[in-house]
Design goal:
Blueprint (H helix, E strand, L loop, with lengths): L6 E2 L7 H10 L3 E6 L2 E6 L2 H8 L4 E2 L2 H4 L3 H5 L5 H5 L8 H11 L5 H23 L6 E3 H6 L1 H11 L7 H10 L6 H24 L5 H12 L7 H14 L2 H16 L1 H8 L5 H11 L5 E7 L3 E2 L5 E2 L4 E5 H5 L2 H4 L28 H18 L4 E2 L21 E3 L6
Parallel strand pairs: 1-2, 3-9
Antiparallel strand pairs: 2-3, 4-6, 5-11, 6-9, 7-8, 10-11
Helix pairs in contact: 7-9, 7-19, 10-11, 11-12, 14-15, 14-16, 14-19, 16-19
């Protein structure tokens, strides 16, 4: 990798589709520079799935990335590789942490949350319904954000009055335009907020995931099931992955349907359903564009004869892979909820497949179904090509989503 000029990823992701095409053109994997750190960007879906299931590819940076210590001191994305949770765990540690958290996302738990999600969606739509006709509103702010935040807040035992602070901090976790100092300060703020939550729940536990994790930690002690660092790290994972990704898919799905009304017509005519819309959105505009990082435990030969060397970092470039023409044909760039195969990597693959996928799908199907039933005349308030992408190479959404819910003369 050192002999090949790396492709420098744009930290603002001003045109990630063009960047994705460039990555695919450079082969199944290609050297990139991600905020000053060298890595292999993998944009070929077959190779990505293969690497995600190999025991010689790890997500444990401390154990398997020789550059870990020198990198985290100055890299704005240090939290992504330094946090202690199942996202960065390998082998037995990963299995232990995943078993611990899995019950929160069981089929029964998701079924129990269904009426909660439906009630939350109804309440949010009632608020939108009360707004004046013809007025443009930011649907990302008024609908895409509050639903998943309320759901994960309920799961973690965070009251609605306690959600604003964590939201701002978590948004900055996904930012890729911060300096190393700004990112470190944000991480410190995030951990301080979580320590306050842990202290509150330890003093007054409730029927929530935070209290359950604390009880597990306190009962088992330092050598047991959950370390102090893993307790904080697991809350980081649930809080960040629990809402930011879902916000983006709600945003992208509504934008896609309002940009191409023929897709909405397919749903209303029964040619596809809301689940199809969700899966096509996850394929077409996954909530995460690039996911840092994995690490090679041994030399990995590539199809073109190059080699990912042991100890080198691997970046999963999901948005490029999801539109790969070898996977979805020459029309892979087109949003089509009726396409036969809508396979994607938006939730990952292999042992690190997202535990929260069923909950995300529940939220997404519910909010899309109910929103378009309540506001059948909704339209974008601006042309689709003027929607501004979030200035980050990780998170895939819009800065705002201006929508007119109904005509002024409604």
């Amino acid at each position: 990798m050192r002999d090949e000029q790396p492709f420098v990823l744009d930290p603002t992701s001003a045109d990630h589709h063009a960047e994705d095409r460039a990555l695919r053109a450079r082969g199944a994997a290609t050297p990139v520079d991600i905020l000053g750190v060298p890595a292999w960007s993998v944009s070929d879906p077959a190779l990505l799935k293969y690497l995600a299931t190999r025991p010689y590819v790890s997500k444990d940076a401390r154990a398997h990335w020789p550059a870990f210590a020198e990198t985290v001191a100055t890299w704005p994305l240090a939290l992504w590789v330094a946090v202690d949770n199942m996202f960065t765990a390998y082998g037995g540690d990963h299995r232990r942490l995943r078993r611990l958290i899995a019950p929160a996302f069981s089929t029964r738990r998701i079924a129990d949350l269904t009426p909660v999600v439906e009630d939350l969606v109804t309440g949010l739509l009632d608020e939108l319904d009360a707004l004046p006709a013809g007025e443009a509103i930011d649907l990302r702010e008024r609908l895409a954000y509050p639903l998943p935040i309320a759901v994960i807040g309920r799961m973690l035992g965070l009251s609605s009055t306690r959600l604003d602070g964590p939201r701002t901090v978590v948004d900055r976790v996904f930012a890729t335009t911060l300096s190393a100092e700004e990112a470190a300060e944000n991480t410190a703020t995030l951990y301080r907020l979580l320590d306050e939550l842990i202290a509150e729940k330890r003093a007054s536990p409730g029927d929530d995931m935070t209290s359950f994790l604390i009880a597990t930690r306190d009962e088992e002690g330092d050598g047991g099931t959950l370390t102090a660092a893993e307790l904080r790290g697991t809350l980081v994972l649930m809080l960040s992955a629990g809402y930011e990704t879902t916000v983006n898919v709600i945003d992208q799905a509504i934008a896609s349907l309002l940009t191409d009304p023929a897709q909405l017509a397919h749903v209303r005519a029964g040619r596809c359903d809301w689940g199809d819309v969700v899966e096509e959105t996850l394929r077409h505009e996954p909530s995460i564009k690039h996911l840092p990082m994995r690490f090679a435990l041994q030399d990995i030969p590539l199809p073109d004869g190059r080699t990912i060397r042991a100890g080198e970092a691997i970046l999963s470039s999901y948005s490029a892979a999801n539109r790969h023409p070898d996977w979805h044909g020459e029309d892979a760039d087109r949003f089509d909820a009726t396409r036969t195969s809508k396979e994607h990597l938006a939730f990952g693959h292999g042992v690190h497949f997202c535990l929260g996928a069923p909950l995300a799908r529940l939220e997404l199907v519910t909010v899309l179904r109910e929103f378009f039933a309540r506001f059948p005349e909704a339209r974008l308030a601006v042309s689709a090509d003027t929607l501004r992408p979030l200035p980050t190479l990780i998170s895939n959404g819009h800065v705002e989503l201006p929508v007119v819910l109904r005509p002024a003369d409604a």
